[in-house]
Amino acid sequence: GQSYIASMEPKLAELRRLVVERGLEVDIEVDGGISPSTVAGAAAAGANVLVAGSALFRDPDGLGHATAELRRLATEAQGA
User: Fold this and answer.
1) CA distances (Å), 43 to each of 17, 23, 50, 68, in order?
2) What is the tens place of the pLDDT at every residue in 56-77?
3) pTM score, two decimals?
4) Is residue 15 classed as helix, strand or coil in its secondary structure?
5) How far apart (Å, rounded) are the C-alpha atoms in residues 53 and 11?
6) Residue 79: what pLDDT?
7) Residue 25: what are its φ and ψ, rounded to 5°?
8) Mapping DSSP to helix (H, G, I), strand (E, B) and coil, where does residue 78 land?
């Protein structure tokens, strides 16, 4: 039930820039508040590991739907 802190997105983007610039293979994880309304911001900023809890279990259409929807939104936000 942790809240998403959108003000961290610029820090995520800077970290992703440094990772790419240095040619590193590093995952950037966001754990807290990932939901359909926040996943795009985190993914667009550079996170590639997204931990969702409440959003998965509260989806009335079930875990499979929730997972697919979050994955779709993240992929779209990354431009992939």
Assistant:
1) 13, 19, 8, 15
2) 999 999 999 999 999 999 999 9
3) 0.90
4) helix
5) 23
6) 87
7) -110, 90
8) coil
